């Protein structure tokens, strides 16, 4: 039977959810407070090439392949050379920044050590305990910083691995296998990630009702709607709507992220690569850098090289000049020389996603409880987004599948 579904928020979460419900034959209305759809995802074309506003790629799985086919979008596969990934540790670039002994211990931990989360340990403490100091400092800290937009001491293992059994009975290997789906690596599209939004919108427009300029502003507004309600607005805008439903320890800590896309004449590293991740004591303010033109074709014009640098909140630095200075100082740590950029483009997202910490874990427990209480009262209201079961687009696609 056709269900009536009201989706609030037309970022990628709302668009994916609308897509899944259309495939089920449901009657969908999508409400968005802005006049544009896609949320933080979008691609700007500038005279030097493409500038992504948020996500640079999506992890391709069979389900996502099927959806792309359905909406008439061809994935753009990465270049072979982008398989190379670097860590910047002890002021040097390295593809494998730990010793053979530490590598062996890591393999032992993954296959044999029982996985146990500790609510009182932050990710850095838990990781030191589980994997040892060297693996934490040289691999885990840089890798997580680049994905979660902050340092490990601001994160929590049970929030990051929310789908894993951390009760002390399973191993990391077993949990990876349990949750594994065949993946074909990260892909983008000919005109960047904006293509994903525009194709989804073109596909959905004739099949659903889209109402822009409509805001979700209160809990009673959703409780009074006929049909099921799906909340896909950003957590930053959701928290004030929930008023005092969240206790202080359940209130998420929101992060501010800046990305700077830099066009220049020389490559960052001698050989092409996907990018570089930075350890926290390397004197570099950036969390990571993606070498866009080494990853995908069509990102630049006129033989430029394009890089996107990812920064946590840059307190005290605001003018273009100051930001350019930070970027070029960070870059010179790797290249060992000063070079002027052809152009830089900065995007700042205030409170764009939450720290994956203990507060978020408790916040999600509260959301589960609210959903159950609504259900008991005959209401089908659910929360979806990058704060629920994973930050990346692939997780969002999978969790929005009905
Ligand atoms: C810099 C950066 C780089 C990233 N890189 C990657 C990457 O390479 N790969 C990857 O997989 N992921 C990446 N991500 C993560 C991914 O882009 C986000 O998790 C995802 O786009 C979030 O989508 P969303 O729809 O949940 O939220 P949003 O994009 O924030 O969308 C929320 C929507 O709700 C609307 N809205 C808000 N309040 C209301 C209201 N009250 N009523 C109605 N509508 C409302 C907003 O206008 C918006 O359209 C990155 C994120 C950032 C910031």
UniProtKB/TrEMBL annotation:
Question: What SUPFAM superfamilies does the record tag this protein with?
Answer: FAD-linked reductases, C-terminal domain, FAD/NAD(P)-binding domain
Listed name of the protein: Protoporphyrinogen oxidase
């Amino acid at each position: 039977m056709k269900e009536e579904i009201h989706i609030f928020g037309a970022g990628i979460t709302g668009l994916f959810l609308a897509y899944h419900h259309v495939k089920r034959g449901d009657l969908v209305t999508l409400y968005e407070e802005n006049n544009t759809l896609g949320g933080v995802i979008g691609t700007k074309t500038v005279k030097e090439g493409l500038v992504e506003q948020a996500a640079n790629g999506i992890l391709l799985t069979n389900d996502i392949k099927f959806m792309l086919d359905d909406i008439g979008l061809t994935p753009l596969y990465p270049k072979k050379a982008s398989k190379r990934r670097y860590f910047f540790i002890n002021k040097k670039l390295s593809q494998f920044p730990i010793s053979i002994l530490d590598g062996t211990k890591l393999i032992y931990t993954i296959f044999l050590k029982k996985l146990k989360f500790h609510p009182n340990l932050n990710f850095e403490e838990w990781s030191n305990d589980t994997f040892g100091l060297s693996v934490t400092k040289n691999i885990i800290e840089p890798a997580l910083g680049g994905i979660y937009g902050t340092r490990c001491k601001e994160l929590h293992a049970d929030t990051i691995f929310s789908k894993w059994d951390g009760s002390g009975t399973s191993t990391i290997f077993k949990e990876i296998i349990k949750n594994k789906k065949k993946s074909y690596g990260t892909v983008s599209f000919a005109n960047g990630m904006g293509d994903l939004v525009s194709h989804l919108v073109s596909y959905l427009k004739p099949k659903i009702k889209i109402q822009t300029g409509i805001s979700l502003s209160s809990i009673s507004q959703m409780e009074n709607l006929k049909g099921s309600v799906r909340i896909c607005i950003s957590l930053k805008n959701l928290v004030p709507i929930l008023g005092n439903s969240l206790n202080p320890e359940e209130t998420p800590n929101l992060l501010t992220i800046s990305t700077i896309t830099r066009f220049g004449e020389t490559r960052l590293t001698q050989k092409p690569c996907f990018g570089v991740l930075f350890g926290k004591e390397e004197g570099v303010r950036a969390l990571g850098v993606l070498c866009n033109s080494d990853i995908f074709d069509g990102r630049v014009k006129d033989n430029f090289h394009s890089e996107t640098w990812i920064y946590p909140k840059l307190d005290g630095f605001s003018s273009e000049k100051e930001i350019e200075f930070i970027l070029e100082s960070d870059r010179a740590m790797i290249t060992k020389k000063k070079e002027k950029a052809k152009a830089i483009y900065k995007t700042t997202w205030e409170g764009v996603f939450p720290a994956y910490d203990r507060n978020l874990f408790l916040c999600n427990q509260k959301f589960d409880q609210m959903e159950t209480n609504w259900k008991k009262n005959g209401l089908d209201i659910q929360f979806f987004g990058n704060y629920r079961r994973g930050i990346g687009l692939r997780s969002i696609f999978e969790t929005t599948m009905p």
